[in-house]
Amino acid sequence: MNFYIKKAATSCFEPITIEALDKREGLYSITTPAYSAYCIQMIEPNDSLEQRILYMAEHPVPNADKYPNTSFSLPLAAVYDENKRLFGYMQPKAFPRSISLTTLTTYQRKPLAQMKRYADKTEWHDKFERDEKGMKNRLKLLYNIAKALHALPAHYVPAHISPEDILITATGKVTLANLIWSEVSQGEKLLFAACNVNQDYLSVEGKRCLASKSPMTQSAALFAYAVIFYQVLTGTHPYSGTILSEPYSQCVEIGQCIDNNLFAFGEKSEYISFPENFNLHSTFRTLDPKIQSLFKRAFSSEVSSRPTLDEWGKTLYESIAAMN
Length: 324
Description:
The chain is an alpha+beta fold. 28% of the residues lie in helices and 18% in strands.
């Protein structure tokens, strides 16, 4: 199949050949040798999306080669069909044998080694279970994710991010996927709004920013990161899996619990209890007290107190070292 790429708005069309990799996901591999390390994501085109892709292609992650264990799925070029109509965008491939982070953020009744879909993925067996070894490996993985997120330029805010947008390998390599949907700003000017935002990861101030069409605050992104980190370590969302008493008993959606500041171990814990026979939040109390403190700050009503990625990285590193 003959297609074309443009690496900038002023660039000429460059011919490439592609073949289907996963039609269900709209993924194509590039058979042109010079671009074999990349793949193409097909999209439903519109003018705004083309502008977004070309802007991102012209503003890549600086010094990305300094992060050999991280793949940033920012568009590197716009892709056009034989009629020069937008078809999708070119991006780096994920690392081989990557899986979605959702595998580690959701409760699994069985160890991965006993699950049929992981029978041929032996590198995952007995590595991330909730024993001492597995929890240490989870902390190491979170350190790598925090490092990858920290490498993103400040004008890219992945406000859309959820575990589905992070791919991982058993050795801790990280792919930040779907970065095309990140918010892009220039100072106080919003260039491209965040798209496909998952409400379960959106802070109160993040919702205000979306409603007013103003640039997303960094604190909103830090909130989403902390939710993901909590899920990796406990297997549940910090605002779900609890029993709420009046006046909050009618809060059934995660977004409602976020709006009402109902973090399981937060400022309104007097209104929160846990199921006796299935309390995934119990893992929280086994975590390093310094990590517990970061989560309490991340989900506090004091938005300015949310820990930065630097703080997460430092604390995770120290916690890992203490386990040696």
